[in-house]
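Lecture notes, continued. The same structure-token format from the folding unit now serves as the input rather than the output. Read the line below as a description of shape only.
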């Protein structure tokens, strides 16, 4: 606590900018600081972060220089630098743990190489949200049956995409059926899935509510995502 009282260096030798860089999470370009005690280590770490998200370099190449930053801060830095260095390392560690590159192989049992093309898609998630991690930790992305209730904006649609992709890649299924209660929601889900699977050999179909047979079982032999209302599903089953 006595060290926290010593916050006389408002510039923090670039660590404040480094913290902001990690919080923003864009990870396109490495951070270039003015020459200081930490600048070379920060440049090495942020460059490794960019390469981790783009190509999957080892996690140690990111965390090792950040641990060195923290060590320097504890040895010769101000209290504010100590605080910032701790925050930077904690946030970087959490981002790596939650990254899709780490979570997808762990939670689906599918090698990272099988996910590489998906990870390169600009529309795919970079990090798992808490609800998505819970689904993964409970085996849902490996094909385990589950009844899940999730609030609005908790990541349901992306979780559904991961579930569908993992089933397709692992050859557990060639078709996914999404049942939505309202026609407007069916439209929204269809549009989202079209964007998510654009350019891939996956057929996206939204069935109409008209009580007629506009669905062919032969569609289920190729990779397909079918969106429909409960009423339409009941009609097809009958």
């Amino acid at each position: 606590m006595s060290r926290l009282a010593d916050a006389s260096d408002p510039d923090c030798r670039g660590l404040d900018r480094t913290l902001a860089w990690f919080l923003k999470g864009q990870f396109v370009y490495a951070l270039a600081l003015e020459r200081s005690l930490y600048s070379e280590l920060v440049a090495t770490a942020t460059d490794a972060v960019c390469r981790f998200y783009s190509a999957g370099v080892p996690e140690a190449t990111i965390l090792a220089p950040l641990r060195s930053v923290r060590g320097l801060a504890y040895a010769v830095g101000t209290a504010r630098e100590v605080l910032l260095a701790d925050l930077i390392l904690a946030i970087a560690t959490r981002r790596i743990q939650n990254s899709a590159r780490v979570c997808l192989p762990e939670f689906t049992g599918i090698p990272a190489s099988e996910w590489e093309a998906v990870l390169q898609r600009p529309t795919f998630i970079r990090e798992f949200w808490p609800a998505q991690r819970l689904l993964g930790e409970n085996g849902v992305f490996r094909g385990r049956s589950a009844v899940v209730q999730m609030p609005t904006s908790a990541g349901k649609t992306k979780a559904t995409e991961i579930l569908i992709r993992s089933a397709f890649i692992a050859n557990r299924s060639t078709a996914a059926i999404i049942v939505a209660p309202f026609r407007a929601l069916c439209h929204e889900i269809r549009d989202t899935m079209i964007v998510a699977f654009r350019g891939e050999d996956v057929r996206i179909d939204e069935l109409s509510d008209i009580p007629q047979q506009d669905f062919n079982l032969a569609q289920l032999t190729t990779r397909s995502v079918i969106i429909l209302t409960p009423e339409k599903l009941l009609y097809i089953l009958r």
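Point for the exam: The CA atoms of residues 157 and 192 lie 8 Å apart.
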